[in-house]
């Protein structure tokens, strides 16, 4: 008898899960309370997978043997509550993909900030070393779909706390935890401890054969290392002390020392990625490369040739002496802190969107030091206005075009305009990519 699998959510991860489940012989049904994108609808129809959008057939869902829940659906969703009450097992797409990945190796990266950059850099290192690998997970392409359509011997996987919440047996060969700062607290009952516990799930099934790479300068991570009870090989990274085994930066020199791998030294001035936070990201990627026995000359080459991601401190254009930078991926205050920390010019900062319980005092000092004006871009800017009124010039706008115009008006030649919103984008935009693209379009139209 076929196992009846219901998939909640028809985005990238949900459709990927449906395709893999159908391939593996499950009886699959997908439902989404919203409207499916035409591309996903076409994929499901081509595979002959029954689906429903604009709602959910509750009886059919509650008859499932197992449910794959997309990461964007919170536990407080009424249908999820009913599934839990009935005791139906709930897993994530990551867990489903893991079941069928065969003997492939997984490098999995999580953290509150910088995980996309670190993931992309590790993938670039692996590709530079001619490893046959795929870049999957939270960074864009569904892990499950990759396993179904083009399996690889190595997966470089960005994984969010929401994806980790519903893993059971998932076990990466190399796990990276690059930092933990307050984020998504609206999904964790406003308890930081719950979010921390979720991040540490990345290592919960690791064994003595596996590596756990962590930031030893992050007090939250250090204070919770006892969450890991299993005998995994721990590799620390630090800028404050010699971290061995692992990596550390002293006197602008990166030192990588992973047992069994080539030792490596490299000047931080060779890093393509600039800014202190990116030194952590680069250090993490170099350690991951060393665990894969990648030659140090290949790691160096990759670190020097890496190009930063779209929507992450992405230079857009310089218009009459004013530089515009797109950091739309900064969806929390800590991300914006990192962006401001790397700025060297007087900055007009564009903030705003859906607030996830933000504490703007975190960036007060950097705003005082580097920001000449704040432009709000959202439907409700009251919290930002209250936080910075009297401390900086604050201008309110309600669209990307208006925000760019207002920021340009506040800037002088030699200044920079930084879109680093510290908020989710769903009030005015489809997602952070849409926000970044509208920003870039508005800059072109100046």
From TrEMBL:
EC number of this enzyme: 6.3.2.9
InterPro entries xref list: Mur-like_cat_sf, Mur_ligase_C, Mur_ligase_C_dom_sf, Mur_ligase_cen, MurD
Keyword terms, alphabetized: ATP-binding, Cell cycle, Cell division, Cell shape, Cell wall biogenesis/degradation, Cytoplasm, Ligase, Nucleotide-binding, Peptidoglycan synthesis
Main location: cytoplasm
Mur ligase C-terminal domain residues: 311-423
NCBIfam families from the UniProt entry: murD (TIGR01087)
This protein's name: UDP-N-acetylmuramoylalanine--D-glutamate ligase
Organism encoding this protein: Flaviaesturariibacter amylovorans
Name of the gene this protein is made from: murD
